[in-house]
Amino acid sequence: MTSPCRRHFEKVRAAQETAATAPGQSMAGATAYELQLLQLAQDRARLKQIQSEQGKAELKRQLLPAYAPYVEGVLSAGQGAQDEVLTTVMVWRMDAGDYPGALDIAEYVLRHGLLMPDRFARTTGCLVAEEIANAALKAQKTGGTFDLAVLERTQKLTAAQDMPDEARAKLLLATGRATLDGEAPGLPRLLIGIDLLKRAIDLHSSCGGKKDLERAERLLKNIAAPEAPEASAAAD
User: Listed GO molecular functions (predicted)?
Assistant: First the structure.
């Protein structure tokens, strides 16, 4: 673990170098960037020695703090230079379960249109939406929960991004389920959740949200049903 003074120096140097690099240009040649690229190559070599995905995720959690000063510097002063370190750390944060941290980077990356390294087949927007949706759906499938705020932020960040309908449907489905989470979500959340599920099914009919939609619509009917006798009595 480096000292606070060292971390501050690394952050300031990264901020200065990224501020001096024009949008769309590569950070290649900048001292802070080149040092981080070297560290990244060493860490990727360590990760290749691990076959377990859970093991890789745990190692990434251990490695990520070393990149934090650089990332903070870039996010504070960057002009949108192409940056393989930044985009890789964004993905690693998702793999390690640090979704808010990943979205902090995603906001910058998507705003400036940074490209993913060649080894990633998906566009940035699709990758962000689908990776977080998959994590949420996995948790929900096993009876767990997922942070609704993370899903809503992901929806907002990727709303204008082009991606396959199936990928967007996953995010809508996960967000709809998270919105409806709990025994009594209440009418406003119920209506929002139903709308999200309908949009997911409309985009991809096999997304897996039909039973969720049926349950939500039954809940809606149960909420609306007690109002009917009162309305009838008032009419009489």
Answer: DNA binding; endonuclease activity
